[in-house]
Design brief:
Elements: H1 12-27, E1 33-37, H2 56-68, H3 70-81, H4 92-112, E2 119-122, H5 125-133, H6 139-153, E3 159-164, H7 168-171, E4 180-186, E5 189-195, H8 196-208, E6 213-216, H9 228-231, H10 235-239, E7 250-251, H11 261-265, H12 267-272, H13 280-289, E8 294-297, H14 303-308, H15 312-315, E9 320-323, H16 332-350
Parallel strand pairs: 1-2, 1-8, 2-7, 8-9
Antiparallel strand pairs: 3-5, 3-6, 4-5
Helix pairs in contact: 1-16, 2-3, 2-4, 2-6, 3-4, 4-5, 4-6
């Protein structure tokens, strides 16, 4: 597929994105960049496909992942680009490998602009993309780990996830051994997960009480005990691949702290990662307590950007938020224009000031 430099027509929506980017960049010069890498729930059909074959660095990195996945990678790529996919995009065999691949490719794209991230924060499968960008895993080994993980999880019982406008403490009376807190995304944004029937019952009880509930695009109960028997079998596979010290600090959503050398070396940590609760908000608090950052969401959608904008450090203007994907995708030109706007904003922000 031909590869050309980053370019594309500018739509009205992308012009607004450019204006916001210019404003954010003008307020703070030379803030270090931290990449936010999203996970399950951020996927949508043909996500970022408008960049493929158009943005050289993105295309090269994505093909690197698909090639490392072998024949399965070719099937995943074909399904991703097809108008009608063979498997639903929310299926574990599609969403997880594609989110990993897209997060990784967008991270490499940012690096191709001459931007060296000072920190990485990955949500769910995004943490594995962060570890690969930081050099903990090679692309080949990470691809092997991702495929092994999703094949195992594909055998887990049907289930799902729901996002609830309430705190984890407020939801405690509604939970049991089946339905649990899967993610703490913000003070009043919590994700629950569990088997299909049990999760539906909890969602109905919450709606009756006037609590806002919406489904998360997932066909599996990620980050819940329901998948633990299937996920933990990955320990032997993870023990067989090399793990290295990260070139960039990785802030863990499992521990809400930078990953330690011990955790990086522990195959059980990585095997348990799809089961462990995602503590995105505490991890973000830890990151922003360490300094001011330009938070660049390197993944599809703007879910993590919306969450990060709730943080006091961002509301004050100490740190900024910059998504690489458009709010709405009307065509491939929107994805290209939004990425170009982000590139220009980061270039201006990193320019030396007199």
């Amino acid at each position: 597929m031909p590869q050309t430099p980053l370019a594309g027509p500018v739509t009205a929506a992308s012009a607004a994105d450019r204006a916001r980017c210019r404003g954010a960049a003008a307020r703070h010069a030379s803030r270090p960049v931290a990449l936010l890498l999203p996970g399950q729930g951020s996927q949508y059909p043909r996500m970022t496909a408008g960049l493929y074959g158009t943005v050289a660095a993105f295309t090269e990195a994505l093909d690197e992942v698909f090639d490392a996945m072998g024949r399965e990678g070719a099937r995943i790529r074909a399904d991703w680009l097809a108008e009608q996919s063979e498997l639903p995009m929310d299926h574990v065999l599609r969403a997880q490998p594609l989110l990993f691949a897209v997060d990784y490719a967008l991270g490499r794209t940012v690096e191709s602009w001459g931007v060296r991230p000072a920190a990485l924060l990955g949500h769910s499968i995004g943490e594995l993309a962060a570890a690969t960008l930081a050099g903990v895993f090679s692309v080949h080994d990470a691809a092997h780990v991702v495929l092994d993980r999703v094949v195992r999880l594909a055998h887990s019982p049907p289930g799902g996830m729901i996002a609830v406008a309430a705190s984890a403490d407020q939801l405690a009376p509604f939970l049991d051994c089946e339905v649990v807190v899967a993610a703490v995304n913000a003070p009043l944004q919590t994700v629950l997960a569990g088997p299909e029937g049990a999760l539906r019952a909890v969602g109905e009880r919450l709606r009756v009480r006037g609590v806002a509930v919406r489904p998360v695009p997932a066909l599996s109960p990620f980050h819940s005990p329901a998948i633990a028997p299937y996920a933990m079998g990955a320990t032997a596979v993870l023990a067989s691949v090399a793990r290295h010290s990260p070139a960039v600090p990785i802030h863990s959503c499992a521990t809400a702290a930078p990953l330690t050398a011990r955790e990086i070396a522990d195959p059980v940590y990585w095997a348990a990662q799809p089961v462990a609760k995602v503590r995105f908000w505490p991890a973000l608090q830890g990151l922003l307590a360490s300094g001011e950052f330009s938070l660049v969401e390197a993944g599809p959608g703007r879910g993590l950007s919306l969450l990060a904008r709730q943080h006091p450090a961002v509301r004050r203007g100490d740190s900024g938020v910059l998504p690489l994907s458009p709010r709405r995708v009307r065509g491939p030109e929107d994805e290209v224009a939004t990425l170009d706007a982000a590139r220009q904003a980061l270039r201006r922000e990193l320019e030396p000031r007199a």
